[in-house]
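User: Can you help me understand a structure? I only have the sequence.
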Amino acid sequence: MKRLDRYFGVLFAAALLIASLSVVAKSRVQKIYAFGFAASFNDSTVYFTDIQPIDSAWLAEKTGFLVSRQNYSYQLRDYLAEKGENHRTCIIVYSPKRDQTEKKYMKMRKKYTAKGDYQVKYIASSEFHFTPIEPDFTTEQEAVQTKKEKKKRRAERKKHANGNIPPQSIPDTKGEQASM
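Assistant: Let's start by predicting it. Here is the structure, written out as tokens:
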């Protein structure tokens, strides 16, 4: 019997270890290759940056998405705004493999140069370079806590509806006390 208890204890400890590791390993740091693209609905000028290595980019573990990718786009948007090119829609295209990024670059460049409808401008790495962004995980944790608080309030309201607790102790959605 002791052997069986010990076996289940070790099995339970291993399961807890695996579960805790999966929670921590939501993102990983990896080198990626990226380029930026900017366009505007107001004119036919589009911008391409050079393909650039970003040494310490954070990628989501499950999806491979670039964490805080909007901030990389904002870097390009802010650079163009400094140069007088306001109201540009900017994107970042990336991949952990340089050849995949080059394929995407060539495909987009071909699309915008083939018909001659667009004026294509290139931004060299010496003029603009993406800087790595450290993600802010506190906002993700705050979002999880907010969800937990909402669930708790719903459960308290449900108890009140069943007549288990008085209405004065149920907080309103805005943190105020409910009144009846």
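Now, to help you interpret it: The beta strands are 27-39, 45-49, 52-60, 89-95, 119-123. The chain has four helices and five strands. Let me know which part you'd like to focus on.
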